[in-house]
Amino acid sequence: MTVGNDTNPLRIAIIGAGPSGFYAAESLFKSHLNVKVDVYDRLPTPYGLLRGGVAPDHQRMKSVAKAYERIAVSNPNFSFYGNVKIGKDISVDDLRNCYDALIFACGAETDKKLGIPGEDLPGSYTATEFVGWYNGHPDYQSRSFNLKCKIAYIIGQGNVSIDVTRILAKNDAELSESDITAVAQAALADSGIQEIHLVGRRGPAQSAFTELEIKEMGELEDAEPVVNPADIELNEASHLELEDEKNHKARKNMHILREFAALSPAGKKKKVVIHFFESPIELVGNGKVEAIRLVKNRLEGEPGNQKAIATDETIEMPCDMVFRSVGYRGIPIEGVPFDERRGVFPNTDGRLIKDDAPMYGMYAVGWIKRGPSGVLGSNKPCSAKTVETLISDIASLQFAPARSNEQLLEKLKNAGVDVVSFTEWQNIDALEVEAGQKVGKPREKITIVPELLAAAKTAVRS
Length: 462
Ligand SMILES: Cc1cc2nc3c(=O)[nH]c(=O)nc-3n(C[C@H](O)[C@H](O)[C@H](O)COP(=O)(O)OP(=O)(O)OC[C@H]3O[C@@H](n4cnc5c(N)ncnc54)[C@H](O)[C@@H]3O)c2cc1C
Description:
Layout: E1 10-15, H1 19-30, E2 35-41, H2 48-52, H3 59-62, H4 65-73, E3 78-82, H5 92-98, E4 101-104, E5 110-111, E6 124-126, H6 127-134, E7 151-155, H7 159-169, H8 172-175, H9 182-189, E8 195-199, H10 211-216, E9 223-227, H11 236-243, H12 248-261, E10 270-275, E11 278-284, E12 291-300, E13 307-318, E14 321-324, E15 328-329, E16 347-348, E17 351-354, E18 357-364, H13 367-370, H14 379-392, H15 406-414, H16 422-438, H17 449-456
Parallel strand pairs: 1-2, 1-4, 2-3, 4-18, 6-14, 7-8, 7-14, 8-10, 9-10
Antiparallel strand pairs: 5-15, 11-12, 12-13, 16-17, 17-18
This protein binds flavin-adenine dinucleotide.
Flavin-adenine dinucleotide (FAD) binds at residues 15-21, 40-43, 48-50, 53-55, 58, 61, 85-87, 105-107, 109, 131, 159-160, 163, 333, 366-367, 374-376, 379.
């Protein structure tokens, strides 16, 4: 059989309609082949973490969705099948029966554990559930967060931690132009939080913030940043790291952190205290988090490879709630190899591998391919590389016996799965934007699956 030509397109299923899934679709459409791309997502809505992760007050970033929408609507060979979970509603074998190749773009949807006593006490949350809750992700709407308390600790110092800090620190007026859910906005407006502590195990020279995000900590209306001047005294190796040409990001962070350390108290309602050289060793409390025990660290190792080593010095600080933000992990799907240690689908240049052997016809992109790092744009070259691998494999692919997904759709219908098309997603989108406009927000998200499915059937577009 010849595929990829005018009469018999190469049939690809992409599992996950997040950024990496869209970039993979785009690369396939740009190839010299005739390709039919069907994108499946377990949610009725596309865009993955762009919708459910990226902070609601960063609307410029959210506007990237327009580029993804263009990929969907400008390619007649693109189809979206929302509300379909691969591994539950449809198996990987089902897909392989009707697609020549599968591209897994299913992200890293669970969290790494801290592995310390007290981690599961009430009052200790993952950043993922908090982010999902305020961003309207249906999985997290039943969660409740007791925000009527004073002191929050956030463990980890990546951009997700900064997002959580900023959402806790902003006042109602600052949040009112975002697309945070109405429920989250009301709970945050009523919160009693006065101190937000951001804890990092290494030093300021190793911090992983982006300059813009750390800078925003100094621009909040009701909150001021606090950095202990002793924490910005650098060891010799950190000085050398900062002198490295490639380390311009760390130099910029350092400059901002030095400015924060030199600030006099401004008497704002909330404080954002940025701690370095500390790791949590226990969450303490009787039935709920009441304190956090931290160990002081020192750095050891060569410049560029310094590790945090625990000292004998520990401190116990009062604390009402903790958000753990120390990284994400992928979730296995039956029929797909999984690297337990790294939490990814093992692959070489995007082609999955099982017992060291290449799996022609099975590929990965985005966070499930390379782990949970990198911004939206990092997924574009990552997906392009995988598509290049797939196309170079074409002679080794076993072409699918079924040349359509009709039987799959029939199976889903019989199982009562309400599949959402891209046009139906656009109905949801239009309703959300309309509801948002009424209250001066970019959108008011629909956060419950049955309501999303009902909205999908409501045509409001002219
Ligand atoms: C809290 C947070 C904030 C961020 N903020 C920014 C930012 O401001 N700027 C920036 O550039 N980057 C940001 N990022 C990074 C960016 O979101 C990621 O680089 C990007 O989303 C990764 O894309 P992905 O497609 O690999 O995964 P995802 O975006 O997670 O998409 C995976 C998709 O797969 C679907 N899926 C999962 N399992 C299945 C299954 N079994 N069947 C069907 N579908 C499935 C999911 O529903 C989801 O839609 C942020 C990340 C996080 C976590």
